[in-house]
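Lecture 7, part B: from sequences to assemblies.

Below are the input chains for today's worked example.
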Amino acid sequence: MAPEPILEVRGVGKRFGGLVALDGVSFRVEQGSIFSVIGPNGAGKTTLFSCLVGSQKPTSGSIRFKGKEIAGLRNDQVVARGVVRTHQVVRPFRDMTVVENVSVGALFGTHQRRGAEARARVAAVLERAGLASRAQALARTLTIGELKRLEIARALATEPEVLCLDEVMGGLNPSEIEGAMQLIREIRSSGITVLMIEHHVHAVLGVSDRVMVLNFGKAIAEGEPLQALRDPAVVAAYLGNDVEGAPG
Amino acid sequence: MERLASVLLSSLLLAGLYATMSYGLAVIYGVMRIINLAHAGLMMLAAYVTLTLNTRFGLDPFLSLLVVAPLFFGLGVVLDLTLIRRLPRGGTGPSMQSLLLLFGLWLVLQNLAYVVWGGDTQSILTPYTMSSVPLLGERYGVPLLLVFAVSLLSLVGLTIVLRRTFLGKAIRAVTQNRDAALLSGVNAGRISAVAFGLGTAFAAIAGTMLSTLYAFTPDFGRSLLLKAFCIIVLGGMESFTGVAIGALVLALIENLAAAYTTIPTSFQDAISFSLLVLVLVFAPNGLPALFRGFSRRAVAR
Amino acid sequence: MSAWLKKTGVAPWMVVLAAALLLAPLVADRGTLNDLWSVAFAVVLASAWNLLGGFAGQISLGYSAFVGIGAYTTVLLANAGWNPWLTLPVGAVLAVLFSVVVGLPTFRLRGPYFSIATIGVSEAVRVIASGMEFTGGSSGLRMPSANFHFLSNYYGMAGLALLTVGLVAWVRVSAFGMALEAIRQDIDAAEALGIHSTRYKLLAHALSAALVGAGGGLFAMNFQYISPGSVFDFPLSLRIVLMPIVGGIGTLVGPVLGAVLFGYLQIKLLASPTLRDWNLFIYGGLLMAVMLFEPRGIVGIWERLRRLWRRRAPPTLEASGGA
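Predicted structure of the full complex, as structure tokens:
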């Protein structure tokens, strides 16, 4: 394992006028691990991801990817360096086919593939995401489960080193969740570091190496999944013991 | 010093007109998130209707407001029911489709005016058109003062409607948060119709007043439309007090430029066009928002 | 070759039209050639605009500025002794520069806000051009008369039209075109996949500005006289937008269809005094009809008809998967 974490976040803050969405969030992510971010709604998880990939500018703090500062860069610049995110509410290009959607990732990702290379890359990603049979379908005709996979496939096509998944399990049935968890493990074994925002505790416990809990923009716990979830502050944040699927 | 005072007064008088002109756009945008490009055409049409009422029936333009305003309110409701309703309600932002549809309507209205009234420049003459009153060392035309009075009255009237009537409150509610308003039981269809009617009525009031001040052709309205956009963007698109501020700011800039710089009048229109672009780019959420430091809709991120 | 053509969306009738355009001087009279020249000009304007407006989805209502820049560059330089043909690239370059100057601040705006800003810009340009001395003020300028040669002008415009459609077809199947399409459909999602939206918008704007600017120069060469009213005109910006919208925004065929339709319409309108009085009504009415009933224009109507036809046609053996 590399001594330096692939992602090092220090004191990241984000204000929207008077609203503090993120307040001094710090954490490290080791290369090749799966790092989950959980917390109640409105805790700032998606804002954190937005700051990581550049669709928002953090108002304070530093984000170092492979040792280099990326805070404040544009979204497309961050993607070019190897950090990509999926969206909580899927945003497919509805009038494009599945192949075309994924091609966008391959064409404009870290390696800017063209021609046969791009096509090969797209085919491989579709295979891995289980969408090969729907390749020529228009995105608007896909089911929610397929759309979630498309969202992941598109991001994978950019050939990232860090993949940020924003609530991919949302709206999936149990078998689809198992499938998603398996896909995430496969992504990790291919060498990609995964950050996940997730509400589904079973999934979080099932795949994560480390878990960080956010509440009101602050990190209130971090560590081994079970350990973090049992932390009293975390339990309190989730309103007593009302955490779905949590043991005890 | 005296010059400055008269420039300020001129600006105030002009601002009244500008504000009335802009409120029509603001109400429609606030409630329906539609950018009404036909606004210019409606102002123009009202001017011509006023002209006809004046030449055919000898009706004084200011008095004809009593006829023109309700008439155009009705027209606005009809337009909403026949045209705007048919547009798909997509997304949260203003749509290109409505923009282009209303643009088309503007062209149609222009042609209508050409056909009915001809393309010659028209103006309305009344016994008092040429009279003026001395104020602060300068003479101010009576029409301009009357226009200011009417503007003030209509703006006060609008404020009363917005604050005291149920419909008015519903309009403000929908402007601030459409979903919440709908959930609270506001009838979207009725509000839209009323909003469009109000917007059209205000366009008509502005058009009638403009007809007393300037000569006009069917093409008139384009530069005014851009000024109105400038004003509502300056004022923050969703705030009604903001529009008044925006109107004052634009009127001030124009009058100051005219009084203290040597920019020829033909270039003055370019000032408001450039201001529009500058404002859209640097302060897209209006001056009030600029001071508050927020960042929202019109600009990415 | 035919497979590539199909992929780009070039329809067979367009190839026929292109051939007709090139061969016409052999058989047609001067009047018809003038009309064809106008149609070719319209094709250049409509197809070039479509790069930014249709592919990238940014509707600019200020393209007459580029026509004007190209036209004035040609006239001013020709009057200074330049060969008019050599002025065309200069006009194109100036149009590109202007497109960047305008684009940098305004591309931050989205949808209708961008469109309104473009109206503001083009009106400002028109007012300034009317007021300046060296551009001849509002009375306009003339080309030096020694330079008029109709057949060259004709082939110049026809060539530009073919070049424009060819370039647009190429963009359509290229990665660049993919980026524009992604920007049109969901700009934030596009950025999230590595597309720097502003850069691609600027590129599309620049490419279309160059083509339109060259067209403006050719216009000056053929009309010999230009004025702010004729080239910096808002109704011109409007017609430029109307053609691709009515024809079918975002397609390759649409703008060409729109250009042919409007070219024909313009000719008929100018010929008949009664119709000319109704031209705004026709443009406005068409725009309204398209927005209300079929926003994808004539191409959209065609596709709807095709789908209806497919449903009506009796199922074949292959379609039903074999009996």
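Note for the exam: The CA atoms of residues 14 and 59 of chain A lie 5 Å apart. Keep this in mind when comparing with the next example.
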